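INPUT
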Amino acid sequence: MNRNAKIFFWVIWILMALLGGNGVIERLTMGHRLAAYTSYVPWGMWVAAYIFFIGLSAGAFLLSSLVYVFGVHKLERIAKLSLFVAATTLVMSLLTIWFDLGHMERNYEVFTRPHFHSMMAWMVWLYSAYFALLLGELYYALRRDLKKLSADAVRDDDRKLKRLATIGIPLAIAFHGGVGALFGTVTARPFWNSPIYPIIFLVGALLSGGALMTFIVAALWPEKDEAWEDLLRFLGKIVLGFLLFDLLLDWADYSIPLWYGVGPEATIVKYVLFGPFWYVYWIVHLLFGVTIPAYLLSRKQDAKSIGIASVLVAVTFFAIRLNLVIPGLVTPELRGLEHAYIDPIGGHLSYHYVPSFFEWQVLMGVVALGMALFYLGQKYLPLMQTFNNREVSK
Amino acid sequence: MNKDRPDNTPESEERRAVLGKMASVTFAGLMLSGVLARAQDAAPQKTLIPAEPFRASSDAHQDVLIRMQGELERAMQRPINERRWGMVIDIRKCIGCSSCTVGCVMENKLPPGVVYRPVIDKEKGTYPNVERTFLPRPCMQCEDPACTPVCPVGATWKREDGIVVIDYDACIGCRYCLTACPYQARTFDFGEHWTDNAAQGADGALALTAARDYQNPPNFEYGKHWKRGEGIIPKSPVGNARKCTFCTHRLDQGMLPMCVSTCVGRATFFGDLNDPKSLVAELAEAPNASILKPEAGTHPNVYYLK
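OUTPUT
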């Protein structure tokens, strides 16, 4: 990174951190009063951000498992980095959803008052187990680089890593499929109530997590040699594959309810495609999230194109998540309820939802914290060792 | 004479006796019309204002509130698992006055943004052929509620008497139940106050002491004292999901739910559906009784008469 880019990056980060800090203070002192979500659209941008971050985490983790479980040597160089990114994005997601709770201090109750029917409870238990497993894997993956280990100890750590990563695969699939099921099981919401959701969530996680890793490798890898370009091309193919698969699921999810254009789900799909926020689907998702990246990944093979394509995919994936959470809630369950009784003070009985500045501030704070964690991690932990470095260290 | 009334009722007997006495009076012809009118007025008044207002009577012309009051007392004497509270709302009688909504807000001291029983105003047709109907929407207290199984901490459940309740001390405020209710009968307490937007004076909001006093005392939902409060750790029910409880705290004191008491058109009926002689049980069985969104499969205990 050149000097100007670095300064620009730092200015942006400081701004985000300041606004974020302010948002978090407002959240703690004012509660939910400044939020734009309502009792009728009870989940807003924070929930969308939560499932976005947690998808990034699951995707990055599964990428690392390709190395530790299936021995895909091509990705060996980024396995530790993937684990660390998975942990960072998991912290971001948990923080976001923690701020979304009405009673943050009661989060432990999911363990002390378990309710086995609830898909949300299962999701929390599974990602807690996943978090513990991630930390364990990181420990065994990084230990060898932080202190001298005998060859036997390294082999032993490798075995433990493989074991943990093997447990991690079904765990990651279960917990992120569970996030999809959390929405899919809500029968009152025709837009969400679909058996395809757990699958869509998993493919989305692999796509967005893979794209984020590709971008990080493209932008921040210290040694931009031949092997690096080779690795990027390989990652680019993975991203392109998942991009097209995700598009297919997208088509299935939208075309089926829309085909005859009748029914509650068709109404919501029409709202997504042609409603007031049509550009989120057509411009942000389809143009910047699918068309341009697909063109770059299939036609261009250079590192810069792959980097741009993957950052576009990773960032615009947030639009897909927004388009999943919010449209499911914007139509009244009983017609006329929107006018029946209003909230003259905070407007919290409305079906109209646009995130408030306060919500953006808190989100910026979480992103700034995630970036800081990542910065510190790649500075002080041996996450991005190249093959050459590793040979030297051996 | 009132043609709807059968002739063997106590009122008509009484009237005959009055008439008999009058007939023997010399100026009967002059007096008759006036006495008749007075007799007609007096008869129904006698049954409308009983000596003991909270005792049930088998009189067919008593106010439905009196009848339901008696049935409520009878139901409360049975064990909780033998009761199944239900409500019937006659939308032909509802005039859309929102007294039930306002009564509920007062009784439960609901802050802005929290509502248990809004009245949906439906307009059909185009001018001049327009029809308006009103649909009060309390919690349906479903037999198979969709909102309770989703709770990650088991803070909401269906009581033995059929009322779906929330433990304010346990609810974490995730709002999953709000998304799961097909009737959107749950709202979130965002921590607002009615005087939030009022101009500020030296001693606080210029909405003055009366308003501040109104919003500050505790409410008595679930028979406890709830004093709302904000902050890093908000005081419940701030930060909680909230919903209609059929005024469980009033039922425990032998009182009908507030919305039933305040309904000016006597359009809301309440009682024990397990008691076949109760008014609600009779009405819920009527051929014109229906439920909202039967396709949701939640089997509501609130019926509508159309």
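end of record. DSSP finds nine helices and twelve strands in chain B.
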